Amino acid sequence: MIAPLKQTLRFESAQRPRLLPATGQVADGSGAAGLAFASGAAGFFCLLPYPALSIGGTSALQIGNFLTVLMVLPVMAMSWRGRAFWIYPLILLPLCLSAAKIGVMGDGDVAASLKAMAVWAISCLTIFIPQLYARRYALNMLVGVALAMLLHAGLGLWQLYSFSSGVFPFAEWYVNQSFLSVQENADTIARYTQRPFGLFPEPSAMSSSLAPWVLFYAAHFCGVIRMRQRPARWQEILFAVAAVSGLGLIILSQSGHAAVTLAAMLLFAMVWFLRCGATLRTYLSIVGMLGVVLPAVLWFAAMSLGNRVGDSQMGNSSWAERSASLRLGFGMLIDGDNARAVFGIGVGHVAPALWNVAQIDAVFSVLLTYVYETGLIGLMAVCAIGLYLARVWRSLGFNLAYAAIAGVWLVGITLTTSYEQLLSLWMVLGWLIVWPEVCEGPVVVRKRPLARTPVEEVIGEPGVSVASSAIATAAGTARPKRWTDQ
């Protein structure tokens, strides 16, 4: 007789945290310290695209790639039932079909498609990191992200200082051939562009990677979200300094993405203002915020972004090239035959085609590049993932912070950057998937037998994520009660 295995695997049971009732902190057990350190390291190195090990002629492996591969190995021994692990193979399926179309019809370079698929596959693996470890080690990941953000902000300030002398500092650190070479353009950046971007390939890539995390910290301090694990005092200070530093670097970089980030920040500040109590401390905070901090930030942002959104040649030429790449890529997709419309232009073929047409390096979008290369099938996969995120948002009671962070992240991958190798972009997607496991929300939990612990009432059944339980409850598809639950 064959029956499904109901016993929870040892690794899966380790994902359910033991929370200390007084503080909400995770009680470490055997092996937990190592996983906590690895989770923090993943948060740190996934925001560090340099340095990297060169692979082939145009690809490279980052430290975050090596760490991700090691940390996601347990997913092969875990049950996928009730989890959103299917999102990763769903992303890869249209890429495989597009590459197969190139091979069958012979209208492109199969080797280029296979190389591009490998880059997508290794980069998107980062989605699994929050799915596997955020439930128990969310604070450790946030600490790693905050430390990386401080490193970028400090390096960005040093860059801004060095640009006044026409020098690009620490150019030898920027070793990653999968990005546009910073070393070859160091003199141009230092003398003419003069926009700091930390240890990233460009300001747009930096802003797209840091903005969602800056907003998460800001939402936490404004009370828009409440984490299941309560940060310690030193973590609160670290998160606050990282948020301010990251926002400052985004503004200094003069990235157009800063306008969207600031709009979300102002929305969070408005929510805090409406919810705050009538105390002397609150009054002083409001006076300081509205009278000093907010005007200073807006003035600083207006001065920094003036060259990008005004009449300057630098700002207009950058956005003109960006919009032209999006328009030309769409034209190449719809002007072809039915096979191209269904399967796309071909994995790794948009950039060469765009260069032949208009001498533009690439389509300045991760999401639209994916759609252009995979066609209608890729668009269907994107819509399926978007529908899942919408259901998560619904299960959270249409939480404002979730919508704002998801929106800023979507703007980043759609209009701001074209580098799918940025691991932070995929970590944010994984974070949005498991949001209910990290933050509290209006989740209705069905009654449990008395033998279950209070933590299991919050986390859910072994092998079933909180996100899946919440979505099932919101959609009315949760299983009926058994007679043993009465």
Description of the molecule:
With 486 residues, the chain is mostly helical. It has one domain (42-280, 321-442). It is 64% helix and 2% strand. It has 20 helices and two strands. A hairpin with a 3-residue loop joins strand 1 (52-55) and strand 2 (59-62). The longest helix has 36 residues, at 128-163. The radius of gyration is 23 Å and the shape is globular. The chain starts with 9 loop residues before the first helix and ends in an 11-residue tail after the last helix.
Layout of SSEs?
Blueprint lengths: L9 H5 L17 H14 L6 E4 L3 E4 H9 L15 H19 L4 H15 L3 H36 L22 H8 L9 H19 L11 H20 L4 H19 L4 H30 L3 H22 L3 H6 L6 H9 L7 H30 L4 H17 L6 H11 L1 H4 L15 H6 L6 H10 L11
Antiparallel strand pairs: 1-2
Helix pairs in contact: 2-3, 2-6, 4-5, 4-15, 6-9, 6-17, 8-9, 8-10, 8-16, 8-17, 10-16, 12-15, 15-16, 15-20, 16-17
Beta-sheet strand percentage?
under 5%
> What is the domain total for the residues?
1
Q: Count the E strands.
A: 2
The parts where pLDDT drops under 50 for at least 5 residues are 1-15, 20-24, 310-316, 443-486
For the biggest β-sheet, the strand order reads: 1-2
Overall average pLDDT: 80
Ends distance = 30 Å
From N to C, what is the helix and strand string? HHEEHHHHHHHHHHHHHHHHHH
Supply the helix-strand structural class: mainly alpha
Radius of gyration: 23 Å
The percentage helix is 55-70%
**What global shape is seen?**
globular
Largest sheet: 2 strands, antiparallel
